[in-house]
Specification:
Oligomer: single chain
Structural class: mainly beta
Strand content: over 45%
Number of helices: 2
Shape: globular
Low-confidence stretches: 1-6, 11-19
Length: 378
């Protein structure tokens, strides 16, 4: 879907369209990391993922949206260029000295015409991107690479978004998939609020993704799953659970993925955890069956709100790439220093150590790592 454009020209043209009400939105993710080997020799990496969206409101019900993206890249062992991972590891990051891969240009990332037929129904014509079952864990928060149900997919066609706060909301998309020129994709999801009280919420979200065609360019024709999100507040105590189940076929056998992310807060103390496991077809390697890096992952992070704009956390992670293979797991212990300058912004200074002897995981043979990551939305 991406082709080179000049975003400044688009913004300038949008600004000259005096008949339209212009809105500009965006998300900025950037980081840097230093990864030290056993001789304490650092290798530095830096990445950014910047999304911009220009919305022109033609009247109170009709709008046009144009999206652009700039994402730093890295080169794989076989010479292929891939989008880098924000806050991950040196092996999948842009080297600090590689300006060509770090400072990539803005690419066209979709356009659409939106018609708000009513307060509860919007029709969409053009490019649509969807995913389901995203992680909250900071190393896996990118839905284009990590998901329990379906990773980020894009199509060009027709869609509808419908619903309200009382009865829930849903999406239905149908069109030509970006996988190749032989496939049609359909995606349907609906978030149903089973409980919707001021201090208690329970939302059930089933999703189905289906690809039609002889050459679908992915190992599974369909994906389905359900998300459950529960939260409860009681004075100074708050707790919640986010749970996901996903199913997709691989070699005529279903791969089941399970995610559980509980969280608890009391006054200044917080604790959150991530538990993920996938039941795969044991006759084949786990990697092509997963939408993640690991078949099994456990992460726990207690943290303390030292100030309304500063939180200190200590995290432990266990990663097992394939449970049927020995010596492919690693343990990671880290510290996170969170800063919240204002709403919709976050800066994190982090450090961690890989305790595994084998050169596994995103840090490879780099045991000690530290760095900074920043997120902002506008």
């Amino acid at each position: 879907m991406r082709k080179m454009i000049l975003p400044l020209a688009i913004l300038s043209a949008a600004g000259l369209a005096s008949a339209a009400d212009i809105e500009i939105h965006g998300d900025i993710n950037l980081d840097y990391g230093s990864y030290f080997d056993k001789d304490f020799d650092p290798k530095n990496a830096a990445n950014q993922d910047i999304d911009l969206s220009v919305k022109a409101n033609l009247d109170e019900n009709v709008s046009v949206v144009v999206n652009a993206n700039s994402h730093s890249t890295y080169r794989t062992g076989d010479g292929k260029l891939e989008d880098s991972d924000i806050r991950h590891g040196f092996a999948r990051s842009a080297a600090m000295g590689d300006a060509e891969q770090r400072f990539t240009g803005f690419d066209f990332d979709g356009a659409q015409l939106r018609w708000d037929v009513s307060h509860d129904v919007s029709l969409i014509f053009g490019d649509m991107t969807y995913s389901a079952g995203a992680f909250n864990h900071y190393f896996w928060r990118d839905p284009s690479k990590y998901a329990v149900i379906v990773r980020e997919q894009s199509l060009r066609g027709f869609g509808a978004e419908f619903g309200n706060e009382k009865y829930g909301s849903g999406k239905a998309y149908l069109g030509a998939s970006e996988n190749n020129d032989h496939t049609v994709a359909a995606f349907v999801t609906y978030s149903l609020p089973l409980l919707n009280r001021p201090d208690e919420h329970l939302i059930l979200t089933p999703s189905v993704d289906w690809i039609f065609g002889k050459e679908i360019s992915r190992p599974n024709a369909y994906v389905l799953g359900t998300e459950v999100d529960y939260s409860k507040s009681m004075d100074l105590m708050n707790f919640g659970v986010y749970a996901v189940w996903g199913l997709h076929p691989y070699k005529n056998k279903g791969t089941h993925s399970f995610l559980l992310e509980p969280s608890f807060n009391y006054d200044f103390f917080n604790i959150s955890a991530t538990f993920f496991y996938a039941i795969t077809n044991s006759n084949y390697a786990a990697e092509p069956q997963l939408y993640t890096d690991d078949q099994l992952m456990v992460a726990v992070e207690p943290s303390f709100n030292l100030h309304k704009k500063f939180t200190l956390g200590v995290s432990y992670e266990f990663h097992n790439h394939d449970v049927d293979i020995n010596d492919d797991s690693y343990h990671f212990l880290g510290a996170n220093f969170y800063l919240y300058p204002t709403l919709k912004t976050e800066a994190v200074f982090w450090a961690g150590y890989n305790f595994s002897d084998a050169d596994n995981g995103p840090f490879a043979d780099k045991r000690l790592a530290m760095g900074m990551s920043v997120k902002a939305s506008f």
